[in-house]
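Sanity check

After download, print the first record. It should look like this:
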Amino acid sequence: MADETGDKTEAPTPKRRQQAREQGQIARSTDLTSAALLVGITLLLVWFGTGVVSALRNVLADALGIASLGQLRSPTMGPVILQNVLAVLISLAPIFCGLLLLAIAVNIAQVGLYFSFKGITPNFAALNPTKGLSKLLGARGGAFKLLMNVTKMLLVGFVAYSAVHGRIEQIVTIQQLDFMQIFGLSTEIIYQIIIRIGVLLLILAILDYGYQKYSHEKQLKMTKQQVKDEMRSMDGDPQIKQRRRQIQQQLAMKRMKNDVPTADVVVTNPTHFSVAIKYDADKMHAPRVVAKGADLLAFRIREIARDNGVPILERPPLARAIYNTVEVGEEIPEELYSAVAEILAYVYELSGRAKKNLIKTAV
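Expected structure tokens:
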């Protein structure tokens, strides 16, 4: 069992990250999404608000016009109302679509494309206000979070005040203005307040996301014993072992397909073992084993050799000796020089190739 009380000094493994992700434990800041939506809806209202106002004005003009008031009981009133509602919805569509895309983009930027319902499973114990308050004040970092929230409220108040500080006189004398002037001044002041608060909250939310990411990474850290136990469990996983064997077999087969055609001769058992041997007097001190295999691999080596015109000789004792003592890529040991040199000389004679100092020791 892993030592949970040890110092967590090791970086989390990919498996631990994946398990945390599947449980919905992902570094994210809800404040970042809220702040981005606040700034986004403010800008969208500035860009598309005129169209919404125009649509609402046309709806009111149609609804309160003399022609409409005279047809309150007319059967055609229903389609007119539906047409007005559609006009308002069309004017609001860019704002709703913009907010939807912005919310999706912010969440993808934080957690990527991943869906998990474990993090939103109802927990009715969390609805206890007493327990929630004790958790807020007693948990590690709870007092710090409370202090940060208070500081955030003070900063928001200061930023909101800064937006109206230079317009106090205009606000006091607003009763002397006509309706359109009052409306224009109000919307301008509200826009300045919201956009400043939104930018402040966005900056604070980015900082909060950085802190959440750091805290999440720290929480996922593992002890050395946990890493060892996880590696041990992964090594014992039958699926992982099977996958390793498959990869090794694929690599061996690929290497065999490339190396066997370059061999000078294939020595066989004849059925159980096959060994492909190559010798280049200019580059090698002794013949080298470029491929070997037993049973099915032995059959595959013989098959590749036949397809590429590589001579195949049956020498059961020699094939078994080379298979058991020499690994792929290694040179033939001295005690087998004479036997291998004899085979290569025979193959060279059959193919008409010159005997270029097959093995100096054997001569």
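If your output differs, re-run the checksum step. Summary of this record's structure: The longest helix spans residues 179-220.
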